[in-house]
Amino acid sequence: MSRSDLALPGLLRGAARRLLGALAVLLGAATVAFAALQLIPGDPVTVMLGPGTAATPEVKAQIRAQFGLDQPVAVQYLHYLERLATGDLGESYQLQRPVADLIGDQLGPTVQLALAALLLAAALALLGAVATAGRRGALRTIGSLAELLAVSSPSYWTGILLLTAFSFQLQIFPVAGDQGLPALVLPAVTLALPVAGVLAQVLREGLESALGQPFTLTARSRGLGRPAVLLRHALRHAAAATLTLAGWLTGSLLGGAVLVESVFGRPGIGALSLQGTTNKDMPLVIGLVLLSALVFVLISTLVDLLHLAVDPRLRSR
Amino acid sequence: MARPAAGRTTLVLASALLALIVLAALAPGLFTHASPVETDPAGALTPPGARHWFGTDQLGRDLFARVLHGTRPSLLLGLGATALAVVGGAVLGLAAALGGRTADQVLMRLADVLLSLPPILLALLAVSVLGTGSVNVMIAIAVAFVPGYARIVRAETLVVRRSGYVESAVLLGLPRPLLIARHVLPNAIGPMLVLATVGFGASLIAVSGLSFLGLGPQPPSPEWGAMLSQGRSFLQTAWWIGVFPGAAITLTALAAGAVGRRAQRRFTQRTPV
Amino acid sequence: MTLLAADGLDVRFGAVHAVRDVSFTLDRGECLAVVGESGSGKSVTARTLVGLTGAGATVTARGLQFDGHDLTTLTESAWRTVRGRRIGLVLQDALTSLDPLRTVGAEVGEPLRVHRLAGRPERPRRVRELLADAGIPDPERRAGQYPHQLSGGLRQRALIASALAGRPDLLIADEPTTALDVTVQAQVLDLLDGLRQQGTALLLISHDLSVVARLADRVAVMLGGRIVESGPTARLLAHPRHPYTRALLAAVPGAATRGSRLAAPHPDGTPPGPDGCPYARRCPAADRTCRQTVPPVDGHGARCWHPQVATAALSVAAPAPAPVAAPGTSPTAGPEGDGVPLIEVDRISKSFGGRPVVQQVSLRLAAGETLGLVGESGSGKTTVARIVLGLEHPDSGTVRLDGRAWSALPERRRRGERLRIQAVQQDPLSSFDPRHTVQQLIGEALARTGVPRGRERRSRVTDLLDQVGLPSALLGRRPTELSGGQRQRVAIARALAPAPRILVCDEPVSALDVSVQAQILDLLADLRRDLGLAMLFISHDLGVVHHLADRIAVMKDGRLVETGEVDQVLAHPEADYTRRLLAAALPVALPAALPARAAG
Fold it and tell me: Is residue B207 over pLDDT 60?
């Protein structure tokens, strides 16, 4: 039954498939973005120039030729892919700067925010789930109401409440900006709460399903106490059940950042996305779409690896 | 044994709240005679009190009336987005599960790609194509949620197709269309409808979020997300402008979520594993 | 010296009285078997003895002594020093009873860590010893593997090893062999027997009398939360006093029961009150006293008001030559090769993912005949059934139905013929659309045969229910609202609705309690006689097949190893594997066949 001699090629095959899948998602995202660009009603050059700009037909034709817009769509698509493959994301219509530079400049604050929110959400979820799993009574009811409230509160409202309470009334935290740790606290809490709510729910369901399994009874019959069973046995099962969702939620923090950065007036990828959308700055929007697809691919690869580490049953397949 | 009782209390409260919200959407005039659009510059930014329960906004409009009258447009946006997403998801998910290998591959790869983008970003992409406005925001949010629903319907359909009872129907020689109509569809769609109850809250929050960003309905129409957005600059002096419209969104999502979760539990209990 | 003494043990879950006034003792080196059907309270009793009855349980007892300690007064932290150290627990299926995410070594070593019996450096060595003691070859390698990488038998041994790590004085084994194939089952029982001989006290919980008969010194039979009869194994099996014990013994199918009824007649008596005899509802001899007052334990360990009367009533009610169709007496069932067989399976093979599951299997089923297809898990018997049913395509070989092509037909052409061959599955619940009522489930099958909607279909459904012994009151029920036996009857009724000539039964009784299994087997025998059905009957249980089938086919690793008349094959098996199967499935607890040990 030994499969160790098969393990290496299997692993390589798995890695190759993984890589191909990742490339497919990136190519797909690029294609979706290109399709979106084609779907915009009206003349792309007019859109490009922005509203209120008068240009002669000659100038428009010149721009059209310059960007290759006079060529068939298929040719444009291939050129577009070619440019992307060389890492060239194009230039923003509105800001007249390379999209890659724009994104690079704004990445820092958002990454900070997302990481802080992620850690906070994970800690809150873990705490909530472990404290309430398999219990009855008041604690459990309060726990699940808190989760439901966290999931149901829009981040832009939570943000406003926190701002009102801690910045305007109590004046503990700064109102806006991205300078230093204090400015990070309220936005991170705001971004973390809904994520923590969802994670806590799923984590607790995982814990409870594990606690209902016969192996839990076996573990307790060996003399383990409840907390030990929870931490040594059930938590691993719950983590395995939560990983995929946690990965997806991590990726979606980038989306949540759009609203949170807007509420707190922070610079970042989210603010940039909003700017790109309202200005119909398509190269910028496409760049951001590709960025989040890339983030997603990286995270889901990480999640898969973690899954393999946590669940041995997946390894021998 | 305390759990079911507590669960029932939550369910009753949530259902009652939901009923009130629906009533407010249908007939806001039942609850207030104040106008949601009439301005009163002299009474601007009055704190909550006996005359104005929720206070007034920067133009002196009664906030209670605005929140009440905002129920209908807000709910319609959320419901519309959910309905579009559910229908789209059901069609695509069923097509993937029942339409053969190629259809499945193409549709699910597409879903993978769309799921790789956070819903808000996908919605922003859709808005940048469609433009701003109520209907476009609704469509944009539906687009953002379609891939998720499609995935669930497909998975659910595949489980049902491989189930023992579909096999029993095959043994009875049931023709394929009948088999799908009688056994596959009802059992595959059910879980998604339950999920849509929970999903409604998410849609409402997302739609109002786009409004909050200024992409949705334009003033002076009272919509919860837009109200929050317009009140932002006055938060420092008038906290109530930020509190009540958001509380309306939260309570609605909360009630729908509580009812939906309950239905979900009921559903999973009924269906054998 | 008595190690464990329970006196008047009572367990309640809210209004549910799960265990009532249960008393027993257990010595070192002794094995007590607690036998009962599902819901009898046997598992709750077992869990109560390790203080893990569950949330919401109220446990009371006049006395619960273990090695001089009163277990009823133990605090949770005191219990933790008892569990795994003084009392070990082994559960049913090691695939789920061992943590699937941890290595076998970590699981077996856990009691050593918890009770500080071995420090980290010496633990691996102790784990290897424990695994070796439990009869696991190559313990070094196995300790580093995960439960799913071990075979069922090895897994169960590892589970036992982990329960023994703390060298407990008492081992409680709750259905320790139920999930295992017969040959493996015998090995695990031998392992447990070895422990008993070394002085460990053994409390064995089982639904199966025949399993415990070979191991237990004493047997306690539980029903409705009470011990209704207990005594030394040999005495209890040879001279059962309680009518329930007698019915249980009579319900075990095998060579001796061929052609006779298994189930006792089933009077629909009024249910017993809260203080009545738990068997009153099913007992042919029950009277008002039985329904109102629980009988005391008599001098022979039985709780029965009418032990003698019960004996008489039973023998009157179930005379030996019961009118059940004897296998092989069907007029149409000729010897093999006589005319065209109904089903002709010709050298079929099937692989899944490159792994051959069925290889070159050929079978014939004549009209009115019952063919028992026997094999252990993974032998490919279910795949053969699915190919016969037309649910899978064979990679090579053919199945012919009534002399005409069947497996070779495209589904479109096969559809019209499908009503001639119907199936009864092991798990009827999953074969029912969860949204449908009994009426709809059976009605759908009738609709396929052209019975019009409305009154006619309704009355036909009622007829079918009547035929399988169900009241029409169940028409509006959904599958989840039925008991296991009722579900299987509904499944049979649905299979009969299109009046098929062939019934394929895939382990139709293996998920049922012995007494319910007996009723279903009786029903199948009746239907075969009345309707002239041919049956392909798949089972892992030689006893069931011997009871019911005309011919037998034995499968192992996807191949047919032996086929022939049941009596012939099981009396004089030719294949080595058949012999091993027979040896493992010890002839059921017939008093005469009992090993002498139990008497001493």
Answer: yes
Min Cα distance B192 → chain A (Å) is 18
CA distance A316 to chain B (A): 24
For residue A136, the chain C residues in CB contact (below 8 A) are 55
pLDDT at C267: 53
Give the model's pLDDT for residue B269. Answer: 57
Range of the domain at A116: 99-316
List CB contacts (< 8 A) between B253 and chain A.
Answer: 151-154
* CA-only gyration radius of chain A, Å: 24
Is the per-residue pLDDT at B217 higher than 70? yes
Q: Do B116 and A29 touch (CB under 8 A)?
A: yes
pLDDT at residue A84 tops 70: yes
Residues of C in contact with A214 (CB under 8 A): 91-93, 96-97
The fraction of chain C above a pLDDT of 70, given in percent, is 90
A4 occurs within a structural domain = no
Q: Cβ B239–A282 below 8 Å, yes or no?
A: no
Pairing of strands C63-66, C69-70: antiparallel
Write the CATH number for A250: 1.10.3720.10
d(CA C498, CA B172): 8
Quote the pTM value: 0.85
In chain A, how many domains are there?
1
A80 belongs to a structural domain:
no
ipTM rounded to 2 decimals: 0.86
The yes-or-no verdict on residue C310 having pLDDT over 60 is no
Q: Do B246 and A288 touch (CB under 8 A)?
A: no
Residues B139-184 have pLDDT tens digits of 999 999 999 999 999 999 999 999 999 999 999 999 999 999 999 9
Which CATH superfamily includes the segment(s) B18-25+53-270? Answer: MetI-like (1.10.3720.10)
Instruction: Please state the rounded mean pLDDT for residues C297-312.
Output: 74
Could you tell me if residue A187 is inside a domain? yes
**A163-213 pLDDT tens trace:** 888 888 788 888 766 677 888 999 999 999 999 999 999 999 999 999 999
- Chain C contact for A236 (CB, 8 A cutoff): yes
Chain-chain contact of A221 with C99 (C-beta, under 8 angstroms): no
Contact B121 A253 (CB under 8 A): no
Burial of A223 (0-12, 13-18, 19+ CB in 10 A): buried
Is A219's CB within 8 Å of C82's CB? no
**C66 beta partners:** C4, C69
Choose among B164, B170, B270: nearest Cβ to C427: B164
Is the Cβ pair A220, C52 closer than 8 Å?
A: yes
> Does A136 reach chain C within 8 Å, measured CB to CB?
yes
Domain boundaries, chain B: 18-25+53-270
Does A159 fall in a domain? yes
- Using the Cα atoms of residue C83, residue C85, residue C87 and residue C92 in order, give the sign of their dihedral: positive
